[in-house]
Specification:
Length: about 325
């Protein structure tokens, strides 16, 4: 299960800890101000916990770590007969002070940018619901009737070809119970760690029937190895790479009329024509040599093949790869 480096459900606890640490380094500014006569605001901003140049998202681990930024604002309202100041002792004694807190966490995964917003009434008797608007690079959602204690989320797909350190702008607007609370932020995308492996490529064939090579080299036959999948053969057969290396399995579903290939740890190469295949009826299977993959009448990048009526044999060539 993927877990955030900063869990949203622990905004307040982590917020206090992070502020204490960062304040000592003068990296976080906190401020409190009296606005009009009946509202007190408090705001803090925490910088991105990751560096888009130094850090990356490692998808090879079980618990993937992301790198969110977070922020929180609070606002107190009320008068209680205490001169309009919600911090006045009399106002607090009368229970007329209401304090709301709006916090957020924003981060990117390998394919999405996500903003999560929490709204909570931390003091007072108000049950006021909020309207929260989240805008990510112009993609906006408005969430109404948000109850205290709720966490709302908005996400967008990252654009094709995105890169580390690309900027995403986003804003948050909370309305209800006093004046608006707003955030206007930018986030530097954290890239995905490159695969720490070596890619090995190979040619593969499906099926257990070894193809014949009786053709003479002088007539253009190279006696290359190949296999054939016989739908009247075993229910499950092998996938071979480099003739002797078994890398997966292939099965035939007579009811669906499909051949399904399972490559295990291997995968198809990134090519729209990584699967090339011929079909043959009984008595038509060539014996002079391997059919030329590039001249196959059927080409795709799917590991599910629809069988042809009347055909028994399938010479399926695959361009495969594995990360080692």
């Amino acid at each position: 299960m993927k877990q955030l480096f900063v869990r949203i459900s622990r905004f307040k606890e982590l917020g206090v800890l992070m502020i204490a640490l960062l304040f000592s380094c003068n990296q976080v500014e906190t401020f409190e101000m009296q606005q009009e006569s009946d509202q007190v605001f408090s705001s803090m901003a925490v910088p991105n916990t990751g560096d888009c140049i130094e850090n990356c998202i490692d998808l090879s681990v079980e618990d993937v770590m992301y790198y969110p930024i977070s922020g929180v604002q609070t606002q107190s309202t009320g008068n209680g007969g205490g001169g309009g100041n919600p911090n006045n002792v009399k106002a607090k004694e009368n229970g007329n002070t209401n304090t709301k807190e709006v916090s957020f966490s924003a981060y990117n995964t390998e394919n999405e940018f996500i903003v999560e917003v929490m709204y909570e009434i931390t003091e007072g008797n108000s049950n006021a619901k909020a309207t929260i608007t989240i805008n990510i690079d112009g993609d906006e959602v408005e969430l109404d009737e948000v109850a205290s204690g709720s966490t709302m989320m908005h996400s967008i797909a990252l654009p094709e070809g995105w890169e580390a350190c690309d900027l995403i702008d986003f804003s948050i607007l909370q309305e209800g119970l006093g004046s608006e609370i707003t955030f206007n932020e930018s986030y530097s995308l954290i890239g995905v760690c490159p695969d720490e492996c070596e890619i090995r490529t190979a040619s593969a064939y499906v099926g257990d029937l070894l193809g014949e090579n009786d053709g003479e080299p002088s007539k253009g036959f190279n006696n290359a190895w190949w296999y054939v999948f016989d739908i009247e053969g075993g229910e499950e057969q092998n996938v071979y790479a480099n003739k002797d290396e078994i890398i997966g399995t292939v099965t035939y579903d007579e009811l669906e009329g499909t051949i399904t290939i399972d490559l295990g740890d291997w995968g198809l190469q990134d090519d729209e024509e990584s699967v090339k295949w011929y079909s043959y009826e009984t008595g038509e299977l060539p014996d002079a040599g391997r059919p030329t993959p590039g001249q196959a009448p059927n080409k795709s990048n799917s590991l599910v093949i629809d069988t042809v009526e009347g055909a028994r044999y399938y010479a399926v060539h695959l361009d495969v790869e594995i990360c080692e």
